[in-house]
Amino acid sequence: MAKTTPGEFIRQVRVEASKIHWPSRQETVTTAIFVGLMTVLLAVFFLGIDALFGWVVTSLLSLL
After folding, report:
1. Cα–Cα distance between 53 and 64 in angstroms, integer?
2. Which residues cross the membrane (predicted)?
3. What does the alpha-carbon distance between residue 59 and residue 11 come to, in Å, rounded to a whole number?
4. Sign of dihedral through CA atoms 52, 55, 60, 61?
5. Domains of the chain, residue spans
6. Is the pLDDT of residue 34 over 90?
7. pLDDT of 57 above 90
8. Measured on CA atoms in the order 7, 13, 17, 18, is the torsion positive or negative?
9. How much is the pLDDT for 2?
């Protein structure tokens, strides 16, 4: 495997870093709001599922 000099490595890093596309502020805010909304919706969904399963288990255990 060929050795890369530190100078060549730095040059390659700069070339690759110049290819990065950073999102705009608006894209970042929109994505953050979407992630927050989905987190809240999933939390409510799993709270409901957990409550349902808790009720089922409690009902089944009360039959014993």
Report:
1. 17
2. 29-57
3. 67
4. positive
5. 39-64
6. yes
7. yes
8. positive
9. 77
What dihedral angle (degrees, nearest 10) is formed by the CA atoms of 43, 47, 53, 57?
140
> Which residues touch 34 (CB under 8 Å, ≥6 apart)?
none
The one-letter amino acid code at 57 reads: V
Give CA–CA dist 12/14, Å, rounded.
5
Mean pLDDT of 6-34: 96
For residue 1, pLDDT over 80 is answered with: no
